[in-house]
Amino acid sequence: QGNATISSTDKYCYADDVENCEVFGALYQWHSVMGLPQSCDTSTVGCPINEKMHQGICPTGWHVPTDVEWHELELAFANPANNDNCDIAHNNGNCAPAAQALKSVELWNGQAGDNSSGFSGFPSGYRDAADNQFYCSEDDECDSAHFWTASSPTSSARYAYQHNLYLEDQEVHRGHYDKTSGFSLRCVKNI
Q1: 62-63 and 126-127 beta bridge pairing
Q2: Beta-bridge partners for 184
Q3: In Å, what is the CA distance from 131 to each residue of 58, 155, 171?
Q4: What is the pLDDT of residue 137?
Q5: 13-65: per-residue pLDDT in tens?
Q6: Do residues 83 and 168 make contact, with C-beta atoms less than 8 angstroms apart?
Q7: What pLDDT does residue 6 have?
C-alpha cells in the first residue's frame, strides 16, 4: 500500500478540499498516475509504458498495478474463486464477495467492508472527465472508490482500465474510462 509521490504531480481532492485528500486520498488523471506527459491521456506517441511494472508516481520499489494484478487480488477474495464468478473481463461475474474484503471498516455510510484483505479501500468518489465535477453520491457522502490500472484496452489510447467498489455491493466492478477522469491509485510492491 505504498504512498504515491505527489509533490510534483497534479492531484484532485474531493470538492477541492485538501482535508478530503487527507481522509480519502487524492484523485489523479491517468497520465499523472503513470508519471507521463498529459498528452498520454489521448495518445500513445511519446508515452513509454512498462505495463508489467510501471513505477509512475509510486515510491521506489512499488508500481502501478496492471489489470491482471487487480484481477488476481479480486480472485483471492472471491467465492467461488473461479471464472464463473470472477473472470478477468467480468463477463461472468464481478468477483463477489471480494469488495467486502477490500473495503475499509470505516467511512462507508454505515455499510462498511470487513477489510479482511488489509487493502482498506476508502470511499473516495471520482472526478468526471466530461464535466470536471466530483461525484460521490446524491447526499454528498462518498459511496464508491475507483482505482486506476496501468492497463489500457488495445483498441484505444484514450481509455484505461479501472476497478471500483460501491457502497451496497459486494462485487468489484471493472471498466475502461477516459484517462482524464480522476480516480485513486493503490501502488503494488515489486516482487
Answers
A1: unpaired
A2: 147
A3: 28, 24, 27
A4: 57
A5: 888 888 888 988 999 999 999 999 999 999 988 898 887 899 999 999 999 99
A6: no
A7: 43
How confident is the model over 99-135, as pLDDT tens digits?
Answer: 999 999 988 887 889 999 999 999 998 999 889 888 8
Task: Indicate the residue type of 143.
Answer: D
Handedness of CA 97, 102, 103, 104 (dihedral sign): positive
Residue 74: half-sphere exposure toward Cβ, Cα within 13 Å: 30
Distance (Å, whole) CA 144 – CA 150: 20
User: In this structure, what C-alpha cell is assigned to residue 12?
Assistant: 484532485
Please give the pLDDT value at position 4.
Answer: 46
Cα(137)–Cα(141) distance, integer angstroms = 6
Which amino acid is present at 49? I
- E-assigned strand segments in 75-187: 126-127, 134-135, 144-148, 159-166, 173-178
Spatial contact of 144 and 152, defined as CB atoms under 8 Å apart: no
> DSSP labels for 80-100?
S-STTT--TT-SS---TTHHH
Angle at 180 between CA 14 and CA 115, to 5 degrees: 50
Which has the closest alpha carbon to 32: 47, 16, 52, 53?
A: 47
d(CA 95, CA 104): 17
Report pTM: 0.91
Any idea which residue has 508515452 for its cell? 47
Which residues sit opposite 145 in a β-bridge? Answer: 125, 165
